[in-house]
Amino acid sequence: MSLSRVEIITGISKIEPLKKALGKFHISGMTVYQVLGCGVQHGTQEFEVSDEKREISLLPKEVVMMVVPTEELDDLLEFVKKELYTGHIGDGKIFVSDITNVIRVRTGEEGYEAVTEGEK
User: Fold this and answer.
1) Residue 45 near residue 89 (C-beta atoms within 8 A)
2) What's the predicted TM-score (pTM) here?
3) What is the CATH number of the domain that holds 89?
4) Between residues 59 and 43, the one the model is more confident about
């Protein structure tokens, strides 16, 4: 079974609702960490920013990282996009990448078994 890594960067206030909503997808695990960053708007909260040189402001964000079966990816992405959408700057970004392998160090399980509840 192929796996995909999904990293969601969004505002701090959206993490709790997102976490609760992800329960519908039976996510077996996730990692959440706080970061500072900005996108193409250089950290501004405004919709229209002049083209003159802008100073970059790093804003507090949260990153949610999870590994999911690739066959479930499209449904998960559509769900997350709807959950995070406000139409305002700062709704977030979603990064998706292929996973070549996952290894659970304690048991030696690899692949899908390493990220699910089964244990040896």
Assistant:
1) yes
2) 0.83
3) 3.30.70.120
4) 59
